[in-house]
Design goal:
single chain, alpha/beta, 5-stranded parallel beta sheet, 4-stranded parallel beta sheet, 8 helices
């Protein structure tokens, strides 16, 4: 097995997942993972470029960063690549007016988006908002469209909070895909374009960066398909049975 120095040769930047890597969410904002505040501080003191690449879709970037700073992390809004702002750019570029099936905590990200007479559906981790009524309304909107468009903020299966594992947006996205006979467009990990947008912000090529996350599919495999190196941490939702 190659030594770590050889494996990391040429790395100039680090992309960090947030949930399951820096902290576990939960009541009262959650809790930092042991050693994560100090580890991030050491990274920031190094010569490496650091950026955060998250599929967080229950909080706005402003609220997410504010919460992380209260937990002791050195992080700013401009360092975070998140799916909600990326989705808003797509909506504006393509003239799409979404029906929003999202969490109230991220709704402010869409304040400047026209949602009248929807011609697409945007789905995110809506938490308790994933009721039959809300899912069925999204289904009805899609079925009424001649060319239905479903945008999903990530496609994770589940994530970990302090209280245990929680269903993510992926299972609900798959339900709408199946019911409507369509394929969602994923904005977020493991989408190659999402990783590329983070790399552009860092001014790095894929081979110069490494992704660190707890999701073997969204973080590790997604980054590797982009030509990046990747490490899976043994925190968050990591499970030995999920190793590649």
């Amino acid at each position: 097995m190659a030594a770590w120095g050889e494996r990391l040769a040429g790395v100039r930047g680090v992309l960090l997942d947030i949930s399951g890597v820096l902290y576990d969410g939960g009541e009262g904002g959650g809790a930092p993972i042991a050693g994560s505040v100090e580890a991030l501080a050491r990274l920031k003191r190094s010569q490496l470029k650091v950026r955060f690449c998250t599929n967080e879709s229950q909080k706005s970037r402003e609220d997410l960063v504010g919460m992380l700073r209260r937990l002791g992390f050195d992080i700013s809004e401009g360092e975070v690549t998140a799916p909600a702002p990326a989705t808003c750019l797509i909506l504006k570029e393509r003239g799409l007016r979404p029906h929003l099936l999202i969490h109230d905590g991220v709704r402010s990200e869409f304040d400047q988006i026209d949602t009248s007479n929807p011609n697409c559906v945007v789905i995110a981790d809506a938490g308790e908002g994933f009721s039959y009524q809300n899912m069925n309304k999204a289904f009805q909107v899609l079925m009424e469209l001649e060319n239905p468009v479903l945008l999903s903020l990530g496609k994770g299966r589940y994530y970990k909070e302090t209280s245990g594992l929680m269903l993510d947006v992926g299972p609900y996205m798959k339900a709408l895909e199946y019911a409507c006979g369509i394929e969602a467009e994923v904005v977020g990990k493991p989408s190659p374009e999402f990783f590329k947008s983070a790399l552009r912000e860092m001014g790095l090529e894929a081979h110069q960066a490494i992704m660190i996350g707890d999701d073997i599919v969204g973080d590790v495999s997604g980054a590797q398909r982009c030509g990046m190196r990747a490490l899976q941490v043994r925190t968050g939702k990591f499970s030995p049975k999920c190793r590649a």
